[in-house]
Specification:
Elements: E1 4-12, H1 14-20, E2 27-39, E3 42-56, E4 63-79, E5 83-85, E6 88-92, H2 101-110, H3 125-138, H4 144-153, H5 162-173
Parallel strand pairs: 4-6
Antiparallel strand pairs: 1-2, 2-3, 3-4, 5-6
Helix pairs in contact: 3-4
């Protein structure tokens, strides 16, 4: 059994995302470490990605930094034509190479949370005020979604039942 290995490092910046021309991520600064290990008949590509991407806050529509840290494995085999079979990518033997840029992008995109929201108090105050005012003016016509957004802006002064605090302790221990 033949085994070889090598390591590559990449620094991704705004140009990387611009070159891929994708709408989801336009900006970012990430470091990628790629370890390639060749075994008989297969290449194991171990990616470690760490850094930040810039996404739009769902609440105030301002740009925000989203930290990314990811460890991913890609298995590559040589074959007759390009294919993805389960978790294995088959690369044409006559080409003999694989462009990992799109795979790196997918690993990054899959590690961005569905909801992009600034930390409390960091949203654009003008936009938060307008949104809060709009939700208050909606009055009785509020939808469940509006109520959820409004809850993000309001501080509940009611006393919390102490039983909930005990239940939260159980969650924190897991």
């Amino acid at each position: 059994m033949i085994t070889d290995s090598c390591e590559h490092e990449y620094q991704l910046d705004n140009q990387f995302f611009s070159d891929l021309d994708t709408p989801e991520i336009q900006k970012g600064k990430l470091d990628v470490t790629l370890k390639v290990k060749r075994t008989s008949g297969m290449y194991l590509m171990d990616f470690h990605i760490e850094g930040n991407v810039i996404v739009t806050c769902d609440r105030c529509l301002e740009e925000m930094e989203q930290p990314i840290e990811s460890d991913d494995l890609l298995k590559v085999k040589l074959g007759e034509e390009f294919a993805e079979i389960g978790d294995i990518v088959v690369v044409p033997e006559e080409d003999g190479y694989i462009n990992v840029a799109w795979f790196i992008y997918e690993f990054i995109a899959l590690n961005i949370p569905m909801k992009h929201v600034h930390a409390p108090g960091k949203c654009n105050k003008d936009m938060v005020h307008k949104l809060s005012k709009h939700l208050r003016s909606a009055g009785d016509d509020e939808t469940e979604e509006d109520e959820g957004v409004q809850e993000d802006f309001e501080v509940d002064d009611r006393e919390i039942d102490p039983r909930w605090n005990e239940l939260k302790k159980i969650l924190d221990n897991n």
